[in-house]
């Protein structure tokens, strides 16, 4: 446990998994996220990521089932189509010399953006794309200028929800769920699933309704929370496989442990922050109300006490018997957080990463480009400072 000062605020850094479990799981009701500034909410969406208290609990209850693997499976053909189209372009480029150099970090960002847009908006893809493009521009503007940004046209997102609702209503009858199984011909997307879930009558008088505006905010949150994180996972996994080509062969058989090892070494979200809502005991220490706590995911994932002498090495085999057994403490691996606020998009991110890497491995072998410079750097998330140029060859 360390105490660090950021400006005038003291932060406790907690890297012991037993204490992390107390904060995020066992005593989570005593800790909460900080209130984000209005500008942050506007950019990230005032959805799950930024909500607190009863409103967060209500949204989480409505949205969690949507990310169930059965719902996400239906999106695989659409994801594969995005990927297929993008990879065709590589094949065309390499027809003369048999190889092609791609800067994968930009490339994966575009791919993930396309897939998240399709997964969220489905048949309203074009309208959704326009909204997400505005959001992407807003993120860039906000990083450049530290003042309030308002982009005209942004409110159009509510119109998209309304027209999506209408077009889905028109299809009703064709799209019944049978025994909980979604029929293939039904265009299913996160927006449609959210509209359906929000339309369910509230279970109790205390339940707050999830409004159209709330749904818009959640869509913005998915885009913000899902785009860079998932594309960073894909980038680091591709870089690691380029550095260790012997694992490319094995990855064609079993990708799960390779993705886990990539998430351990290069967790896209490097830390989790909480604030004590009240005075609380933690591992024999008295933590006063208002104390800021940092859980340094990146440092925990590299701790040799937890991960043995080869903690810095790429060794997917450590996950051979599952994530809970990979380290000395079952809570030492937490790329998606832990407890009730753990990442809601985990299944979507892993499904997308498995599909994308598997489709690349089916067609190509790859290595680092001669000008690749290894420089992991944190700008909110963990990303390659000088990009990730890789050379791909047809199998
Ligand atoms: C590799 C990809 C991803 C990583 C590493 C990641 C990581 C995380 C982490 C560490 C948290 C917990 C934050 C905390 O406890 O303070 C989180 C929360 C969240 N993530 Fe992800 N995420 C990923 C992909 C996604 C995707 C694809 C989506 C949505 C489509 C998403 C949506 C969210 C949301 C909405 C939350 C807030 C959940 C809540 O507070 O109830 N994430 N993510």
Overview of this protein structure:
- The structure is a single chain.
- The chain is an alpha+beta fold and 395 residues long.
- It is 48% helix and 13% strand.
- The chain has helices at residues 17-26, 38-44, 53-63, 69-73, 76-93, 104-121, 125-144, 156-171, 190-199, 212-243, 246-251, 256-265, 297-301, 304-307, 346-363, and strands at residues 2-6, 9-13, 31-32, 99-103, 272-276, 280-282, 285-287, 292-295, 364-368, 376-379, 381-384, 389-394.
- A five-stranded mixed β-sheet has the order 1-2-8-5-3, with helices on one face. It has a three-stranded antiparallel β-sheet with strand order 4-12-9.
- Strand 6 (280-282) and strand 7 (285-287) form a beta hairpin.
- The radius of gyration is 22 Å and the shape is globular.
- The termini are far apart.
- It binds protoporphyrin IX containing FE.
- The site of protoporphyrin IX containing FE has 24 residues, from helix 10 and helix 15.
């Amino acid at each position: 446990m360390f105490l660090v000062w950021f400006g005038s605020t003291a932060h406790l850094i907690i890297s012991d998994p037993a204490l992390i479990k107390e904060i995020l799981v066992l005593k989570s009701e005593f800790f909460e996220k900080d209130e984000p500034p209005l500008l942050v909410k506007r950019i990230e969406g005032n959805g799950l990521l930024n909500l607190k208290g009863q409103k967060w609990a209500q949204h989480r209850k409505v949205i969690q089932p949507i990310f169930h693997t059965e719902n996400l499976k239906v999106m695989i053909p659409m994801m594969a189509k995005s990927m297929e189209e993008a990879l065709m372009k590589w094949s065309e480029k390499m027809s003369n010399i048999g190889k092609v150099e791609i800067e994968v970090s930009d490339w994966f960002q575009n791919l993930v953006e396309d897939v998240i847009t399709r997964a969220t908006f489905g048949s309203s893809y074009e309208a959704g794309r326009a909204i997400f493009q505005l959001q992407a521009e807003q993120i860039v503007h906000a990083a450049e200028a530290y003042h309030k940004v308002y982009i005209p046209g942004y409110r159009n997102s509510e119109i998209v929800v309304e027209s999506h609702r209408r077009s889905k209503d028109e299809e009703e009858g064709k799209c019944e769920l049978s025994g909980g199984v979604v029929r293939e011909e039904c265009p299913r997307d996160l927006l449609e699933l959210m509209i359906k879930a929000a339309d369910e009558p509230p279970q109790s008088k205390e339940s707050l309704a999830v409004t159209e505006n709330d749904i818009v905010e959640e869509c913005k949150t998915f885009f913000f929370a899902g785009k860079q994180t998932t594309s960073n996972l894909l980038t680091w996994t591709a870089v690691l496989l380029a550095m260790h080509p012997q694992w490319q062969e094995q990855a064609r058989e079993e990708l799960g442990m390779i993705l886990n090892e990539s998430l351990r070494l290069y967790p896209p979200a490097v830390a989790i922050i909480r604030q004590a809502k009240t005075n609380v005991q933690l591992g024999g220490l008295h933590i006063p109300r208002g104390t800021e706590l940092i859980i340094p995911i990146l440092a925990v994932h590299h701790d040799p006490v937890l991960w043995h002498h080869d903690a810095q090495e790429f060794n997917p085999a450590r996950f051979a018997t599952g994530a809970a057994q990979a380290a000395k403490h079952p809570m030492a691996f937490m790329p998606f957080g832990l407890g009730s606020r753990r990442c809601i998009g985990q299944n979507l991110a892993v499904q997308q990463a498995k599909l994308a890497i598997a489709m690349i491995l089916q067609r190509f072998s790859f290595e680092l480009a001669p000008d690749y410079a290894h420089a992991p750097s944190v700008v909110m998330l963990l990303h390659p400072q000088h990009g990730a140029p890789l050379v791909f060859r047809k199998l």
